[in-house]
Specification:
The protein is mainly α. The protein has four helices and two strands; from the N terminus they run ββαααα. It has a two-stranded antiparallel sheet. The chain is globular and about 40 Å long.
Length: about 130
């Protein structure tokens, strides 16, 4: 995948859609074993319709992860998170940054429990397959 700009010497920024190839991940300060690469680089079904139940539902699959892993900071009344993730709209608005933070394991922040591989797979599938409000 093509990366569109450089941030600092030796550090690559995500492409316009917020994704980078796994080979382009710098991992920051995170231990590479603690920050697995995304399970794939694009929607697993491409432009085809996924099998029934294949596409994560925001309400059923994505939002519970956000509530459990992100709402400590990203909640109404908490300035630590800078923005709230109380429903689909703000998550959709910040999808490029959310994707980048997941790729580089910047979120959850250091000291917070890491996302499981399964949680990361759900979030990446949802992000890469169009962030539907379903």
């Amino acid at each position: 995948m093509h990366v569109t700009d450089q941030t600092t010497e030796g550090e690559r920024a995500p492409s316009e859609d917020g994704r980078t190839d796994a080979s382009e991940r710098d991992g920051g300060d995170a231990d590479a074993s603690a920050c697995p690469p995304p399970p794939f680089e694009e929607c697993p079904w491409g432009d085809a319709a996924p099998p029934d139940g294949g596409l994560p539902s925001f309400a059923r699959d994505v939002f519970p992860i956000i509530q459990n892993r992100c709402s400590t900071c990203h909640a109404v009344g908490n300035d630590a998170g800078l923005w709230t993730f109380e429903d689909h709209h703000p998550v959709w608005d910040w999808q490029r940054l959310v994707n980048s933070d997941l790729i580089y394991c910047k979120m959850p922040p250091p000291g917070a429990p890491s996302l499981s591989w399964e949680e990361r797979a759900v979030l990446f599938t949802w992000l890469y397959c169009g962030t539907p409000d379903n």
